[in-house]
Specification:
Elements (H helix, E strand, L loop, with lengths): L2 H15 L6 H11 L5 H9 L1 H11 L1 H12 L15 H25 L3 H24 L14 H11 L9 H12 L3 H25 L7 H28 L6 H17 L3
């Protein structure tokens, strides 16, 4: 298949799945296997096009990020003031720290042992179970107070989301699925958990992709850069649309249908492709 067509197809896959609770990494690995697009260049491509999805978040939440930057430059709002609501840099820091630490310590092990079709299928199933469990937990505590905006979120809730995010170090678990589930268990409503999942993805994904790309610079040549540019652009546009659609959908639909999709995908792939 033409390499640019593969770039478009995988850009669409990345854009749709990056912020949905279905695992973009898992889908890219499975799609790459089906398209026979594997090897070091394929892995670098799959990492690079995530930057397009990150850019979509930065554009959509530009006012939120601009406010954080402005507050940081003034030396303000590093911590929420006592008794006052407000989303600060500290919420991002405590949510990112667990994944940064574990990702750094386990990076080699994860790359060597967890980036395979079988481990992705396991991650899809286990991640779906976590999502169903999180929804059940959230229904039981529905009568209790929940954070309904990012500015209502506590540092403890941000830390809980950050710890849940560590599950996504296993490809197939889904970073958004893990963080939204963690947010539901910690007492965020579904939309707030989804928005925080999008925002906390920016520093985590920038760190992870930057680290991987620095180790892959030798693979970059003119032809490969063109392929990366196509995948990046498609990923950005599709991710933008996917985020807007998901935020509308998540108000009315639980995580359970996404979990069912994950179970079906894992089962069908195992039966049809791995038989």
């Amino acid at each position: 298949m033409n390499l640019w067509l593969i770039a478009v197809l995988l850009g669409v896959v990345e854009g749709i799945t990056e912020f949905l609770p279905v695992s973009s990494t898992g889908h890219l690995i499975l799609a790459g296997e089906l398209l026979d697009f594997v090897g070091e260049r394929a892995e670098t491509f799959e990492i690079f096009i995530q930057l397009g999805a990150i850019l979509a978040v930065l554009v959509l939440y530009r006012q939120r990020f601009a406010g954080l930057v402005a507050a940081g430059l003034r030396g303000q709002a590093l911590l929420p003031r006592r008794g006052e609501p407000g989303f600060t840099w500290m919420h991002l820091a405590v949510a990112c720290l667990p994944a940064f630490v574990l990702g750094f310590l386990l990076h080699g092990f994860i790359k060597r042992n967890l980036f395979s079709v079988r481990t992705v299928l396991i991650g899809l199933v286990l991640g779906g179970v976590v999502m169903v469990g999180a929804e059940a937990w959230a229904r039981r505590r529905r009568s209790h107070a929940v954070a309904r905006t990012l500015d209502d979120m506590s540092l403890g809730q941000a830390l809980a989301v950050g710890c849940a995010q560590c599950l996504a170090l296993w490809p197939g678990f889904s970073r958004s699925g893990s963080t939204i589930s963690g947010g539901l268990v910690a007492g965020l409503d579904r939309r707030t958990a989804a928005e925080f999942s999008f925002i906390v993805a920016v520093p985590v994904m920038l760190a992870a992709t930057g680290y991987d790309l620095l180790k892959s610079l030798a693979l970059f040549d003119r032809a490969f850069v063109g392929t990366l540019a196509v995948g990046f652009a498609v990923s950005f546009l599709v991710a933008w649309l996917a985020i807007v659609a998901f935020l509308r959908l998540v108000q009315r639909v639980s995580l359970t249908p996404f979990a069912v999709y994950r179970f079906l995908l894992a089962g069908l792939y195992a039966l049809v492709v791995l038989r």
